[in-house]
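Each record in this resource describes a single protein on a pair of labelled lines. The shape at a given residue is found from the number at the same position. The record below illustrates this layout:

***
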Amino acid sequence: MNTDPIADYLTRIRNAVMANHKVVEIPTSKVKRRITEILFEKGYILNYKFEDDRRPAMIKIALKYHPVSKQCAITNLQRISRPGLRKYVGADELPRVLNGLGIAIISTSRGLVTDKEARAMNVGGEVMCYVS
């Protein structure tokens, strides 16, 4: 039993990036699926696939690398709110990652969104992680 599945998700991606893997497999949940979709929409990963026919159900994530420099699109993944210390922000206190170059994933009453989308909707919530 994992006490913090989001931290495990981020750590698996971080370890795969450091080892220059092309694909990483992660056990799935609804929150992990939404984080994966956000990472794909914002261009941090190349592709993803939800494998529900397997037990346990898995997410296959193809990591995105620069063709010349071989550097991954994800340079930093940082867990902010954790089970021992939750971090909540209001709509007027939403964080900016790398002055707008990175994204913060926020869990709001309207689902998981990026910091820019939360600012547009004028809602606050729990700051899940920073991606840059």
